[in-house]
Sequence to fold (743 residues):
Amino acid sequence: MLQEVLHAAAELDLTRGLAIRSSAAVEDLPGGSFAGQYRTFLNVKDQAAVTEKIELCWASSQDVAEFYRARFVGGDEAHNSNPLMGVVLQKMVQAKYAGVAFSRNPMFPRRTEVVIEAVEGLGEPLVSGRITPCRAFVREGRKVRTEFPSDPQSKRRCALSTRQWREIASLAHRAEQLAMGLPQDIEWALDADGVVWLLQSRPITTIQDVDRHAPAGIWTRKIADDLWADRLTPFLADAMLANAPRFDLSRYARLLGIQTISPSLAVINGFLYVSGEALQQVLQLIPNRFRTTDLRVLLPPGLEADVTSPAVPKLASFLARCVVLPWIDPQANPFLCRRLTTRRMKKLGERLQAIKPRPPNATPQELLDRVQAAVELMANLQELNQWPYSYATILTWLLRWLVEDVGRLPHADFLELLSAGGNNVSVRIEAELTRIAAIIRRHDELNRLLREFPVDELNHVLPPVIRHELNCFLNRFGARSRHRTLYVERWSEAPEQVIGMLALLAKEPPGKLKTSGNRFKSVVNRLSPALRLVARPVCRSTVKYLDLREDLRFFLDQVLYLMRTSLLDLGRELGLDGNAMFLTLDELSSVLAGRASVAEAERLAMLRCKEFRQECEPCTYYVDGRPINELFPNAQIIRGVGTSPGRVSGPARIVADPGRSHLGKGDVLVAKSTDPGWTPILSVVAAIVAEEGGLLNHCSIVARELGIPAVVGVRGATRRIREGASITVDGDLGLVQWGRSPL
Fold:
């Protein structure tokens, strides 16, 4: 037997060198690679060495691999002291370059990206970890990004061409295809003639777990926090994604020469995310010096660095197209946008009023048509909202750049300007509730009822004067709720929510608003005269667009209320009740058409409802299914986004429902998220901390109007902060601290 092996070695041209390596029966398991445990020998050139190295290969199966067998194999195999092993003799490739390649990036396995590492000469020093390699990332078989060690000579020593990197990536892909699509870890060598050799291929065993709900690509909650902070039920999520191409600005991006990425939106565990790749395309048009902090945090840490500065011809072409765009769509003109939006919103309001009345004795098909009409109306509204939302965002970023980066004023001054003279529906709702609460305070009998009856029972004992005021309020603003998700009752359906807030406001009179005109002047006057000329109109336009944005959000509340009531009506007719909100429009149509049974639909809806009710914290980013959160340097200090200036200390009150809260003066409101329905109680508290939200959401706007500190986007706030704990909120720095040490 030995003579046959030596004869075969001679035929392989032993004098030029052989590689002697192992292939064991329990090697390269799904959970363990046995990496480096079985021995390999290179450049073996005589018969005595062949015999010796084969024996050493076999010996390695009985010694150093014992841990792997015990940890990953299990059963009788784990205790087998002599597992099966073959020893492979290969002709040596006299490598000019060698290395390894993963057919999938083990950190981001959903990317179509091959990771290649290379060194000069043989690859053994790389595999054993004795040398730092050059690295290349090949995406979609063509995009090549290279990284080199800090050694200035490394780039010269590893001078593979783009074609050669791609050829190695292609070899890794072919190995994966031959392995039935299982990601492969290959060893390769490039000889002096430029031929790439496959030396070994085995499964990748180190791919990290990913969230099964998350799609491939880069996804960010930044912007989505302001766009839609609340969790989406399956019906609304499906409708949102189906209509996304109508309102994600992709049509205008194509007109401006920006590469469009599809899909632009994703819903992960019920939360809305925006495509990071789409944002990268936009950021490439913004020079580095104009990329504010707001822009840099849109992408996960490290990925923003991949966004290069724009080429001058590309930027010039983009600016030229921007000049032409308002002639194609007048709403793109910032000077006409508000007027045109208001006019078109009025027409949509007429359509809403026409759809609202429920047809008497409506058939299930008529109710489904009503649901479809509500979805179409929402899509129309989101189309209308593209430019107002964009201008509100762009102007806010511009104002911050002018005040903080150019004017060198503190962040608190920028926040003061955002609250200068705002007048929107959220402010009007707060004023109306404050007026009704003042009536309650003057009504002795009602004050007694508030003390004696629970909030849930007060609706039945209200005196006529307050009943009339409440009904008028609900007729105007009853489409609001504490959250916009379809699963939550609206104020008109649950008047006790409003009564609870009125009771709180009657007990704790709200603070007075600051005089916005004085705040505006005091900040603007600290800017240079030239900068003042620019900042004044920018500030006024920003505030007006923020007001328009709030009014559009209230219109959306009304559309969502119509959608909710229509789904509940349809659910009752089909025997699904509220479970209809956990089915998609197509699934409801299938039930109505008889293609799916009510029992099947109900089982699916209940499964989704159970999953929806489970506590779930949205991650800031997802990269190829892997959740990434922002880092917090200190366990007792958590960072968010400061959206209203000031510093306040007080007891934390964790609130889930504003209508059932027990807040007092000096309390700090801590909540997962706040929607416009929370506005009335914000005037009672000393500061606000929210897990969701951004600079432009209603909570931030109202906090600035009230002059109370607010920090939003504070991940895990309701979990990490204890009820009643003394905390300090710094709206300037965006910090929340608890404990004895002062901030």
Residues 575-614 form one domain. The CA atoms of residues 157 and 312 lie 34 Å apart. Confidence is low (pLDDT under 50) at residues 30-36, 75-80.
